[in-house]
Design goal:
- The structure holds two protein chains of two kinds.
- Chain A is mainly α.
- Helices cover 69% and strands 0% of the residues of chain A.
- By secondary structure, chain B is of the alpha+beta class.
- Chain B has eight helices and four strands.
- Chain B has helices spanning 2-27, 33-43, 47-61, 72-105, 114-136, 168-177, 201-209, 222-225, and strands spanning 158-162, 181-184, 191-195, 214-219.
- A four-stranded antiparallel sheet of chain B has the order 2-3-1-4, sandwiched between helices.
- In chain B, a hairpin with a 6-residue loop joins strand 2 (181-184) and strand 3.
- In chain B, helix 1 (2-27) crosses helix 2 and helix 1 (2-27) runs parallel beside helix 3.
- Classes of the chains: A mainly alpha, B alpha+beta.
- At the A-B interface, helix 2, helix 3, helix 6, helix 7 and helix 9 of A face helix 1, helix 3 and helix 4 of B.
Amino acid sequence: MFENWGWRGKTDKKRPDTPEAQEVELITLIANADRQAFEALYRLYFGRLARFLDKMTRDTHLIEEIVNDTMLVVWQKAPSFNHTSRVSTWVFAIAYRQALKAINSFDEAVESDFEHHAAETRYEPEQQMSAQQLDADLSRALRALPMEQRVVVSLTYYHEMGYKEIAETMECPVNTVKTRMFHARQRLRFMLSDSMEEIL
Amino acid sequence: MNTKTNQVHQSDESDHSQVQDLLPWYANNTLQADEQQLVRAHLQTCTACQDDLQWQQKLKAGEPAASTVPNVDRALARLLPKLDRQVQAAKVNNTNNFMARLRTLFTADGKAPARWGMAVMASQTAVIVGLVAFMALPRQDDSSYRVLGSGERSSGNIVVLFKPETTVKDIQRIMSINDARIIDGPTVTNAYLLNVDDARLEQSIRELRSEAGIELVESLGSGAAK
């Protein structure tokens, strides 16, 4: 994995076996201001963070800025990474906080009105669906969710996070995560009732 | 008997409610073994949860395509100069801390002889006076000598990726005809951050793109980043 991301170790020490152990080693190197390790971690996370942030804002430039703000915090705080959580949970928690800060300061209209979008999103049963249409429907339905529900859905379905990790990332109780997911599912069911049955 | 049946129903309902909460994480395979077992057992008899799981699996498999197109090289090139500033700031802090520690070492509390403290303070003063004098001295025109990161034009506005076969001589020629300076790099992918005069930014980008030895040229101008 390290070779794929261009990381060139400076020692002959045996490389860690698991992806998690490799990420922990990168953080240790970054804590010693190793720029190559930083670039490796940056490239490893860029796509995942960009995909996650795409559910929160539609501004490409803002996404790049949030990723950079996130990774700058990683660079600064790597020495204090305490190993009690996974590297990915730690990085995503920083990204989530940075995103909320950036989006609030830009005052971007990302919080959507559920009823308005729900009405737009529901399709008539006779309407023909294509995979592309379903993609667009799902995208619209997700954006129609309140931000916190959308983030829970995204981290669960598209980033394979457990509910405890999500609670840690969003700094909220586990039960709040489950409640947000429950409401999100109900709303998505309603908005996608026709398109999901037609296509999937 | 009735009481027993009611208890079974209540237990089923409680399981159903619990499993409903856990289903999304059963679908992404992150539950602990005991939770997984509970869900699996309940799914064998509950068609509502079976349907729900199937629906969630479809939703999970169909992540919508991203509506944005962030560029890793462009973003990283903007971040790297900030890391340098961070490192420099940390070095300054460390130096300050060192001086502070040194001073503490020679105070009365540090129990070191006061004469040592005086000597260190005197040498410190001598160094500072020397530096001030050096900076005040008139110097020859040093325009032919430019250090990396000199303040005149310090921010990069173009990222280039040279082809692996491009020689140093070629790079020097390309830099020279475009009056470009390398601000940072190479990154692990051999990308360099360049600075050219803003007035001829577009022209430089066109010329750089026409170079056979260059793989990719990206502007970091505000318009291009959108």
